[in-house]
Amino acid sequence: MDQPAVRFRFIDLFAGLGGFHVALRDLGGQGVFAAEWEPTLNTLYEHNFGISPWSDVNELDSDEVIAQMIPDHDVLTAGFPCQPFSKAGEQLGFEHTLQGRLFFKVFDILSVKRPRRFILENVPNILQHRGGQTAATIVAKLEGLGYEVQVHRLSPHQFGIPQVRERAYFVGSLDGLNAFEWPTEFEESTSIASVLHPDAQASRDIPEQTLRAIDMWGDFLSRSPATVKLPWFPIWSMEFRATYPFETTTPPKSWARRRPRELDGFAGSFGFPLERLSIREQRRLIPSHSGRDGDIEFPVWKQKFIRQNREFFLTNRKWIEPWLDKWQPWELPSSFQKFEWNAQGGVRDIDEHVLQVRASGIRAKRPVTAPSLIAMTNTQVPILGANISRTGKRRYMTPEECAELQSLGGIELPESDLQAYKALGNAVNASVVRAIAHPLLADLRPAKKNAAHPQAA
After folding, report:
1. What pLDDT does residue 433 have?
2. What is the 3-class SS of 132-156, one letter each residue?
3. DSSP notation for 196-226
4. Residue 218: predicted pLDDT
5. What are phi and psi of 185, to 5 degrees?
6. Cα separation of 352 and 182, whole Å?
7. Residues of the chain whose pLDDT is less than 50?
8. What is the pLDDT of residue 150?
9. What was the pLDDT predicted at 110?
10. pLDDT for 97
């Protein structure tokens, strides 16, 4: 297919796998500059797009260097680092010395080069970070450059891609946004089948321990009576048979006072007695979520989950007790002892679902969407149940299938599966960007070179 005529020039900051590049190229854009610090992705970007990216944006350390090294362009795109604003991290924000202040590098480039439009992407938590102050600072800084700014949250599943992965998008224009409208949602249902490759070959087997844990929770589902509504909250099997205190006092509080005898008469994980044990011995029998030093008082949400799990067990112990005796989940790692059923009302056959091993437990989702891609380790790659995998057995999704979830199926990926999964977890979804950029750039009038800053006029 012929390349569309060039309508505008764009730059791609913190480029990663090039999701912004794919989207804007499809709309007739020409990439004229990219920046990516990770060496493997830097090399791969040049292979995929013919642009050798700038490595460290911090070396663009003055207005003069920016003006000299970055070509004039009409559109700036940037998925600036999200870790400082993510719920999964410490949420240090702009105070993160390595990454948190990289937004201001984007600001510097906008200030010097004056592109007519920009699209920025980050985790949705950036909108709540520091009570909304972080997002307010970003918008105020951008508006101070003369841009009209709008912010919206969007996910690939809203555009027909079977992945729920909400992200915050900031768009801006020097020409105003009166004609811009955020894209409308895709109205039809999605299916994981749309991204699966019929000839896919998993590059590695699922570990035996993981398969045992899946079998264990599959048996839990099959034993559960149809009349019993499965919990919407995380199932913590270590709370089954447990009786240790968690409301008026906690095990860490007893340990802090050097009084392990306060736990005599109570039971820890799976009902193992705490009687006449040392603090060290008791620690091994208390769930990790209840045994952290300093947890003198558990937060309300944790108390609620413990209470709900114990009540669920007591109400259903007739079928849960035999399940515990058969599988002995205490012999498995803590993450396998927990289960998240994200398929309320769905068929109770674990092989009809998409699974993911997380620190919070094994999560089962309906096959309409895949788990949100994150910067994954090999253990977090989505697992397809045997009945939906197209191979007749459970398998990991391949990097190529995960690329389809990010609308990046046409580019070459890192050779290492682990690097590919990590890069895809950090990537921006090309379909979502394309849907945003199409109306944003429809009336784009390319800027004159070196347009003056409004504050300097």
Report:
1. 97
2. HHHHHHHHHHHHHCCCEEEEEEECH
3. --TT---SSPPPHHHHHHHHHHHHHHHHS-T
4. 98
5. -75, 150
6. 35
7. 1, 82-98, 450-457
8. 97
9. 96
10. 44
Closest CA to 420 of 118, 120, 38: 38
- CA-based R_g, the chain, Å: 26
pLDDT tens-place string over residues 399-447:
999 999 999 998 999 998 889 988 998 899 999 999 999 999 998 865 5
User: Domains in the chain and their CATH numbers?
Assistant: 8-186+426-456 (3.40.50.150), 208-397 (no CATH)
**Amino acid 375: pLDDT:** 61
Distance CA 261, CA 250 (A): 13
- Helices vs strands, H then E, count in the chain: 12, 12
C-alpha angle 212-217-220 in degrees, rounded to nearest 5: 130
Task: Please report the pLDDT score of residue 81 as a whole number.
Answer: 75
DSSP string, 89-116: S---GGG-TTTTTHHHHHHHHHHHH--S
Return the residue matching tokens 């012929």: 2
Kindly report the three-state secondary structure assignment for every residue of 151-197: EEEECHHHHCCCECCCEEEEEEECCCCCCCCCCCCCCCCCCHHHHCC
CB atoms near residue 448 (< 10 Å): 9
Residues annotated as part of the active site:
82
Judge whether 374 and 406 are in contact, CB under 8 Å.
no
CB atoms within 10 A of CB 68: 11
pLDDT of residue 3: 54
CA distance 209 to 223: 21
CB of 40 within 8 A of CB of 414? Answer: yes
* pLDDT at res. 445: 67
Sign of the CA dihedral running 330, 333, 335, 336: negative
In terms of residues, how long is the chain? 457
Q: For residue 2, what pLDDT is reported?
A: 52
* Tokens read off for 174: 């020097």
CA–CA separation, 184 vs 431, rounded Å? 13
